[in-house]
Design brief:
Elements lengths: L1 H13 L4 H13 L3 H14 L5 H12 L3 H17 L3 H14 L1
Amino acid sequence: MKNRLEALLKLFEKDPNDSFTIYGIGLEYLSQKDFSNAEKYFQFLLEKDPNYVPVYIQYAQLKEKLNQINEAKLLYHKGIEKAKAVGDKKSAFEMEEFLNELE
């Protein structure tokens, strides 16, 4: 696990604008239950690339784990909007399902 994170961090140093790398770092931190670093990278990605739809799902689920339900709902709502705007019906549907479970 550690090696994958180190490799991703090296890629990030070379290209800090690569959304896929930033997302991967967030996922690695999430899998290590390092929620504050996962959140840091998810937040950074949302600011840098608000159309990167997968981050909304993971970030909202992280907020659920942290029992920050209102923030999770907001992320799902924004994510659904973005997913529909970019034509990602599958992700929009997925987030609608998660959102319905929360409400």
